[in-house]
Amino acid sequence: MRRAGLLAACLLAGAAGAQTCEQPPAGAARAESPRFVLYYKPEPAIVLNKHFGLRVLVCPKAPVAGPLQLRVDARMPAHQHGMNYKPKVAATAPGQYQADGLLFHMPGRWELMFEVEAAGRSDKLAARVDL
Fold first, then answer.
1. Would the pLDDT of 76 be above 80?
2. Is 117 within a domain?
3. What is the pLDDT of residues 43-64, one digit of tens each?
4. CATH number at residue 63
């Protein structure tokens, strides 16, 4: 009986620490890694030579210990260069982020790059954007 109570308390404590995933924004695109599903939505829409931001939702596939950290960048693989600006990423709620200051200065194929860090490990996710 005592052992069952201890097990229930441990399970409840683990569930309380687990992150729940909110509904992704309407029209959001998706990227996936072995540990995470990530949804992102540009706001405003991506237009050549105009700054834009990304609303990002990071959903762990299984509970992860500790807080998540997100880094966002972009590059043009064919030209082997990145953006001329470094985006700023801020957490807006658990698992939710706003990345601002992105700008695609050339037409062509871009790759949005997301790095999610949790429990001492990093997952890298990428998404293709054609302008």
1. yes
2. yes
3. 999 999 999 999 999 999 999 9
4. 2.60.40.1930
Residue 54 CB neighbours (<10 A): 24
Instruction: From 71, 74, 102, 112, select the one nearest 89 (Cα to Cα).
Output: 71
d(CA 82, CA 27): 26
Place of tokens 């569930």: 15
Q: Is 16 left (phi over 0), alpha (psi -120 to 50) or beta?
A: alpha
Please give the helix or strand (H or E) that residue 6 lies within, else none.
Answer: helix 2-17
What is the per-residue pLDDT for 20? 57
> Count of domains in the chain?
1
Assigned domain for 16 exists? no
What strands, in cross-sheet order, belong to the sheet with 29-32?
29-32, 36-43, 52-60, 96-102, 88-93
CA gap 123, 102 in Å, rounded = 21
